[in-house]
C-alpha cells in the first residue's frame, strides 16, 4: 500500500507491504537524498512473505515525498522526529529498523535517542565516519582512474591528475570534512564511478536493470535537497557505539567500501558482536544478492538479543 502521510508539516511517501499485524520493519534510506524505492522493489515483498510489515519511507523532500519545506532547516534530528511521528501515526509501540549507508547513521542516532522504540537495529553498510570511508575508498578510486588513464586515447592526463588528487586527499594529516569535496575528486571516473559501490560486472548489471525499471515520472533530482546533510557524515559516530543499548548487527557486502575495516573493528569491540558479510555483494547487497540479504537479516531478527551470528 502506497500513501502520502502528513508528518510534521509535510507529506511523506510511505510504501507498506505485508500484513497489518506483521512485525514492523522500518527501512531508512541513505544518500543523502536517495529513496526507499530500490530497497522496496528488491526485497520489500520478500520480507513481507516472511511475516514482516515492511515500511519504506522517502524522507522529507525526496522523490515521492513533498518538496523540502523551507522551515525547519534540514538536519538529522528533523529526520528522526519524522520517523518518530510516523511510528506514532501508524499506531506502533515499537519497530525494527534497518538503516542503509548514511541512513545507517540516521538509524544509529535514532536508536540512541529512542532506544525504547526500537526492538532491533540493522546497520547496513553504515556511513558512521566519512573520514574513514574516504581514506579507504579514495585509493581504490585512484587505481581505477589510473587504469582508465592507461586506456585513454588522448593520453589520460586529466585522469592521472584526478588520481593524484584522490591520493592527496587520502593522506591529509587532518580529518577530512565535507568541504574537501572528496566525491568531486572521484567523479572523473564517469561511468566507472558505480564500480566503487558494486561488487562486479554481474551485480552492477543487476543494479542497472533494477534502476532502469523505475517509473519514468520519478524526480530523482529532488534528492539534491539533502546535500546539506553531507557535513553530518563526517561526524565520527563510532565514538558512540558503546552507548548503543538495543540489539544490533552490522551487515556489509564483502566489497563494500562505505563501512571500512576500521569501523567494523570498532563495532565489534564496542558491541561484542561480529559483522555479517554477504558474499558477492558491494554497497547495495539488497539489490546485488537479495535472497542472501533477506536470509541474513531474518537470521539476526530471529534472535536479536544474541547479536549477529
UniProtKB/TrEMBL annotation:
Domain AB hydrolase-1: 24-289
Lineage of source species: Bacteria, Bacillati, Actinomycetota, Actinomycetes, Micrococcales
Pfam families: Abhydrolase_1 (PF00561)
Single GO MF annotation: hydrolase activity
Protein name (record): Alpha/beta hydrolase
Keyword entries, A-Z: Hydrolase
Organism of provenance: Microbacterium bandirmense
InterPro entries per record: AB_hydrolase_1, AB_hydrolase_fold, Carboxylesterase_BioH, Epox_hydrolase-like
UniProt cross-references to SUPFAM superfamilies, sorted A to Z: alpha/beta-Hydrolases
Amino acid at each position: 500500500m502506497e500513501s502520502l502521510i502528513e508528518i510534521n508539516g509535510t507529506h511523506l511517501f510511505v510504501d507498506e507491504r505485508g500484513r497489518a499485524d506483521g512485525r514492523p520493519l522500518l527501512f531508512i534510506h541513505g544518500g543523502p537524498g536517495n529513496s526507499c524505492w530500490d530497497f522496496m522493489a528488491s526485497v520489500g515483498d520478500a520480507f513481507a512473505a516472511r511475516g514482516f510489515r515492511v515500511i519504506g519511507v522517502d524522507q522529507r523532500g525526496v522523490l515521492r515525498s513533498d518538496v523540502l519545506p523551507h522551515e525547519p532547516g534540514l538536519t538529522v534530528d528533523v529526520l528522526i522526529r519524522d520517523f518518530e511521528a510516523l511510528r506514532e501515526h501508524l499506531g506502533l509501540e515499537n519497530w525494527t529498523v534497518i538503516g542503509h549507508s548514511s541512513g545507517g547513521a540516521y538509524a544509529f542516532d535514532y536508536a540512541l535517542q529512542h532506544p525504547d522504540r526500537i526492538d532491533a537495529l540493522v546497520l547496513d553498510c553504515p556511513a558512521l565516519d566519512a573520514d574513514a570511508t574516504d581514506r579507504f575508498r579514495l585509493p581504490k578510486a585512484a587505481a581505477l582512474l589510473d587504469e582508465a588513464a592507461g586506456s585513454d586515447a588522448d593520453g589520460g592526463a586529466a585522469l592521472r591528475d584526478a588520481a593524484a588528487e584522490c591520493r592527496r586527499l587520502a593522506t591529509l594529516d587532518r580529518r577530512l570534512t565535507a568541504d574537501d569535496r572528496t566525491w568531486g575528486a572521484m567523479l572523473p571516473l564517469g561511468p566507472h564511478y558505480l564500480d566503487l559501490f558494486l561488487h562486479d560486472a554481474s551485480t552492477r548489471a543487476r543494479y542497472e536493470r533494477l534502476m532502469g525499471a523505475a517509473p519514468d515520472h520519478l524526480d530523482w533530482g529532488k534528492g539534491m535537497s539533502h546535500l546539506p546533510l553531507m557535513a553530518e557524515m563526517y561526524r565520527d559516530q563510532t565514538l558512540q557505539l558503546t552507548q548503543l543499548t538495543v540489539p544490533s548487527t552490522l551487515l556489509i557486502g564483502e566489497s563494500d567500501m562505505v563501512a571500512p575495516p576500521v569501523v567494523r573493528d570498532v563495532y565489534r569491540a564496542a558491541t561484542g558482536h561480529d559483522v555479517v558479510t554477504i558474499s558477492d555483494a558491494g554497497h547495495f547487497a539488497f539489490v546485488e544478492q537479495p535472497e542472501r540479504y533477506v536470509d541474513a537479516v531474518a537470521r539476526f531478527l530471529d534472535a536479536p538479543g544474541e547479536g549477529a551470528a
